[in-house]
């Protein structure tokens, strides 16, 4: 195979792929199926919205894709790795290196500065503070918060806290960005600012992004929309939302 054809094949490869994916939660003898035979793929560079009613399994699916939880059945690959075959230690390293995760709540550590919070993924993998902190400040510059690098989370607004969380998610240059209602805790103005920022960073850093959201206006601005309901998943046209 020529170098050009190899690159073409890689560019067309699915970064996220699932087949027959099932997740069942148990409470005593009772079984609660949340995801049933979910199958989909996301290509490199796509920005995909994940929609569905509360309780439809959006968060559960993101946890499975990031190896934060294990599937009951089926297969899932993400960023070139078979997640079903990973040990707990391998899963932890995979999350640190390959996945950026943004939550609805920022989960910043209040005793640390914005720069220290952003640097945490690098420090966790053993990068020296002398290298990790300048890199963190670079990412705070990317999200427009370089001037707030030495402020603690309690000194930041809600929108600023979420931008710090986004910088933290991307500081290790992951292949995949997963976001679970990243604007759900913000007012309309800050939500728009954060979504616009995510869209720019997605393009600028060639990310593959899957964003769970209740905001259908944001979902319509993604390249594709996946809808969860009754345990299953289907693709819908963005303009149909």
Structural account:
- The protein is of the alpha/beta class and 241 residues long.
- It has one domain (45-69, 86-240): P-loop containing nucleotide triphosphate hydrolases (Rossmann fold, 3-Layer(aba) Sandwich).
- It has eight helices and ten strands.
- It has helices at 3-11, 58-65, 88-98, 114-124, 129-142, 158-170, 188-204, 216-220; strands spanning 14-27, 30-43, 47-51, 73-78, 81-82, 99-102, 176-180, 208-212, 224-229, 232-236.
- The protein has a six-stranded mixed sheet with strand order 6-7-8-3-9-10.
- The relative contact order is 0.18.
CATH superfamily: P-loop containing nucleotide triphosphate hydrolases
CATH class: Alpha Beta
Q: Could you tell me the CATH topology label.
A: Rossmann fold
Trace the largest sheet across and list its strands: 6-7-8-3-9-10
Which overall shape is indicated by the principal axes computed on the Cα atoms? globular
CATH architecture: 3-Layer(aba) Sandwich
Average pLDDT: 90
Q: What is the H/E order? A: HEEEHEEHEHHHEHEHEE
Alpha carbon gyration radius: 18 Å
- Strand proportion, as a percent range, falls in 25-35%
> How many DSSP H or I helices?
8
Largest pleated sheet: 6 strands, mixed
Number of domains: 1
Q: How much helicity do the residues have?
A: 25-40%
**Total number of beta strands:** 10
What structural category arises from helix and sheet content? alpha/beta
Span from first to last CA? 43 Å
Weakly predicted, low-confidence segments: 1-12
